[in-house]
């Protein structure tokens, strides 16, 4: 219960950052075009710096095994979500953007500040496994799904700044190489911007929304139910009853981090792909807004269920 309350407080704090973005756009201090620039800065500059900083910890075999468990759990979660979305496609008549919204969470933007605030900055290291798995799938499966055709190459995936950062950071971690203080300090300061910057951009996105249009899209609330409640409860069941929690001394905490990542709102990258490929960008933005606004209630509830079942 205490962990759920702490999570709710941190999410509420992030909502204040969203409110600042909302007010700034409404007051015309900034324009919608500025939001696209800030999104690119967050995705291609701030996020790699954050990942680099997360790996700058003392090496141990336990940490490496824990990272492997986090990666395994992330692969299982995404595999199950892709399968569920495929099985529900015909019965629920799911559109491409709806399937992508059900599968991919906004972990890259929300998970780092949440983990750092709720269970401590030393656990941020394990978030990189989920981010790595999702980044690879985002630029392969998600991109093809939203676009409607396969149009990607391994070269473009591995040239993604986040993938480069993860590979470089992992090499430095395994080789026990510490960055010089000046570089480490700069990377840390840049990386700390990830939460506020992404929440600010989400606030700008909400400010662009027409509330009547928002409320008229009833199917968005169906996707909300799947994205924030049904799919995460499936994740809780897998983590608590599959034996994954027996694979590492700190498995319950590591799986908790993966759960946090998987029960967050729709990935903002899905909306960005929708804009690029003209695949219902307005509807995707609505899903992003309603899932973001609702997660302050759903995420603590999912965490509470996990705590009760796992004994964490």
Structural summary, described in words:
There is one protein chain. With 312 residues, the chain is mostly helical. The chain contains 15 helices and no strands. It has one domain: Na+/H+ antiporter like fold (Up-down Bundle), CATH 1.20.1530. The mean pLDDT is 87.
In short, what is this structure?
The protein has 312 residues and is mostly helical.
Write the layout of secondary structure elements.
Elements: H1 2-26, H2 32-54, H3 61-88, H4 96-103, H5 107-118, H6 127-147, H7 154-158, H8 161-174, H9 181-191, H10 194-207, H11 211-216, H12 218-241, H13 251-262, H14 268-276, H15 281-310
Overview features:
single chain; 312 residues; mainly alpha; Na+/H+ antiporter like fold; 15 helices
- Count of DSSP-assigned helices: 15
What portion of the residues fall into strands of 2 or more residues?
under 5%
Q: Termini distance? A: 11 Å
Query: How would you state the average pLDDT, rounded?
Result: 87
- Identify the overall geometry: globular
> Based on DSSP secondary structure assignment, what is the total number of beta strands?
0
> What is Rg?
19 Å
Largest sheet: none
CATH class: Mainly Alpha
Task: Catalogue the unreliable spans.
Answer: none
- Binned, the helix content reads over 70%
| SSE string | HHHHHHHHHHHHHHH
Q: Which structural class do the helices and strands define?
A: mainly alpha
Q: What's the CATH topology label?
A: Na+/H+ antiporter like fold
Number of domains: 1
The second-level CATH architecture is Up-down Bundle
């Amino acid at each position: 219960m205490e962990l759920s309350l702490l999570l709710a407080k941190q999410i509420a704090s992030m909502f204040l950052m969203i409110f600042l973005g909302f007010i700034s756009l409404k007051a015309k201090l900034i324009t919608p075009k500025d939001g696209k620039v800030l999104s690119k800065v967050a995705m291609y500059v701030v996020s790699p710096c954050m990942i680099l900083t997360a790996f700058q910890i003392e090496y141990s075999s336990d940490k490496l095994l824990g990272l492997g468990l986090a990666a395994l759990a992330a692969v299982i979660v995404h595999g199950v979500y892709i399968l569920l979305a495929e099985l529900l496609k015909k019965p629920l008549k799911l559109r491409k953007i709806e399937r992508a919204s059900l599968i991919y969470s906004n972990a890259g933007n929300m998970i780092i500040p949440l983990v750092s605030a709720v269970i401590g900055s030393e656990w941020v290291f394990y978030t990189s496994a989920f981010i790595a798995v999702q980044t690879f799938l985002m630029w392969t499966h998600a991109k093809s799904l939203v676009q409607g055709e396969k149009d990607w190459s391994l070269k473009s995936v591995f040239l993604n700044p986040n993938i480069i950062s993860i590979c470089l950071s992992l090499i430095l971690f395994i080789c026990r190489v510490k960055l010089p203080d000046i570089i480490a300090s700069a990377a840390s300061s840049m990386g700390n911007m990830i939460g506020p910057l992404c929440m600010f951009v989400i606030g700008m996105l909400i400010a662009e929304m027409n509330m009547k249009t928002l409320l008229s899209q009833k199917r968005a609330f169906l996707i909300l139910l799947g994205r924030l409640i049904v799919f995460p409860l499936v994740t809780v069941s897998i983590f608590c009853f599959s034996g994954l929690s027996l694979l590492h001394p700190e498995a319950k905490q590591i799986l908790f981090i993966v759960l946090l990542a998987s029960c967050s709102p729709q990935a903002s990258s899905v909306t960005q792909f929708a804009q690029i490929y003209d695949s219902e960008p307005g509807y995707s933005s609505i899903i992003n807004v309603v899932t973001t606004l609702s997660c302050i209630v759903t995420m603590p509830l999912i965490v509470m269920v996990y705590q009760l079942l796992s004994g964490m």
